[in-house]
Specification:
The protein is an alpha/beta fold. It contains 15 helices and eleven strands. Helix 6 runs parallel beside helix 10, helix 8 runs parallel beside helix 12 and helix 12 crosses helix 15. It starts with a helix and ends with a helix. About 45% of the residues are buried. Bound molecules: glycine. Glycine (GLY) binds next to loops.
């Protein structure tokens, strides 16, 4: 069966790609974007391209390479959150040098959130910077990591602690690749989609409530991804370096990064974000900012989407240690982004450690 048909039957129709023109670089969302990628590179006279990919999506990378000039190299690397480290960046940089990549070349990174962060960082450093195009193949990468120019890797002390702001020159969300994503990864990617829907409120949230009972394979992913990217883009546009409103995108993330760190990245980012959103709600209730009714609505959505709300196997102190290393801490004090309502979120809220510890303890059970 031809792949287009297999994707259509999985509820991902071949509609015209959606173009998002809110950022200084184009963002294209759609299935089978080979022609769009080739046309973009041609329009910029970018003839020398190298593809970097996560080994797990090598098949997709080769399919996209076929639409580019003959001989376009594809360099594949085993990735994953535990390999999101400087040593992998060095391996990527060595491979670029070995492949003869120069400053006239463009790097096209193919993969999920780790690939986008790590390959984007490598492209930003190689010969002091070569243009980077992001081809996202996971929900987290599409709706979050691909746009906004945050690149980097984890350090032993915590997540995303080494990196640089460096915008891609274009982003392509290759929706057909979701069809080959393991079901669990597809589902857990929804943590970031829910986060954006809480920030936006209104139809963005109710649409997820309506879709929640459908099989994920039947979701209109192009529309959902595009809407989520628009919500993020509006916050990133005026605050590229995260000194103001962009911080709102960290809703649930201080807890999530602490949980990822404490579980040595056994929890995926999406799963940790889902638990982190519950934690942000619990903390906001304790601060008397958020009603129990709104929190129930959030928990009901996360439950219907079968996203995790707790984890039995983590050390509370480990989570607190990971949270303290978070970039969002200021002068050692933990500051949170917390909801006042679905659609109304506030940043920069300092909370005493004892309150944070009590909330983290609650995350061992539902
Ligand atoms: N992931 C949050 C941001 O890009 O600011």
């Amino acid at each position: 069966m031809n792949r287009r048909h297999s994707v259509e039957s999985a509820g991902m129709p071949c509609r015209a790609p959606l173009h998002i023109d809110m950022l200084p670089y184009p963002v294209v969302v759609g299935a089978f974007l080979e022609r769009e990628v080739a046309a973009f590179l041609n329009s910029r006279s970018m003839k020398r391209v190298v593809l970097l990919c996560d080994r797990r999506v090598e098949e997709h990378a080769y399919r996209y390479a076929e639409a580019l000039p003959k001989g376009t190299p594809v360099l594949a690397f085993p990735l994953g959150e535990r390999r999101k480290r400087l040593r992998t960046v060095e391996a990527v940089l060595d491979a670029l040098a070995e492949a003869g990549v120069d400053r006239q070349s463009t790097v096209l990174g193919v993969g999920g959130g780790v690939a986008g962060d790590l390959f984007g960082f490598a492209a930003a450093s190689y010969m002091r910077g070569v243009p980077f195009v992001n081809l996202a193949t996971s929900v987290v990468a599409m709706v979050d990591a691909s746009v906004g120019g945050k690149t980097g890797v984890d350090l032993a002390a915590g997540k995303n602690l080494a990196g640089a702001f460096c915008d891609p020159i274009a982003v392509f969300a290759a929706i057909e690749t979701l069809d080959t994503l393991p079901a669990r990864q597809l589902r857990e990617g929804l943590g970031e989609v829910v986060k954006h829907a809480i920030l936006e409120g209104g139809v963005a949230f109710t649409r997820l409530e309506e879709l929640a009972s459908l099989s994920l394979r039947a979701w209109p992913w192009d529309a959902i991804v595009a809407e989520s990217i628009r919500i993020k883009s509006a916050l990133v546009l005026d605050d590229r370096l995260e000194s103001g409103r962009r911080e709102l995108l960290n809703l649930g993330h201080t807890f999530a990064h602490g949980l990822e760190y404490a579980t040595d990245y056994r929890l995926s980012h999406g799963a940790a974000v889902s638990i982190g959103l519950r934690a942000a709600g619990l903390l906001a209730i304790r601060r008397k900012m958020f009603s129990r009714e709104e929190h129930r609505r959030l928990i009901s959505l996360l439950t219907q989407l079968k996203l995790p709300l707790h984890d039995e196997d983590f050390e509370t102190e480990g989570v607190l240690e990971g949270m303290a290393a978070d970039k969002k801490a200021r002068n050692g004090a933990l500051r949170f982004v917390l909801p006042r309502a679905i659609g109304e979120v506030e940043r920069g809220i300092a909370v005493p450690l004892s309150t944070v510890r009590a909330v983290v303890e609650r995350l061992h059970t539902v």
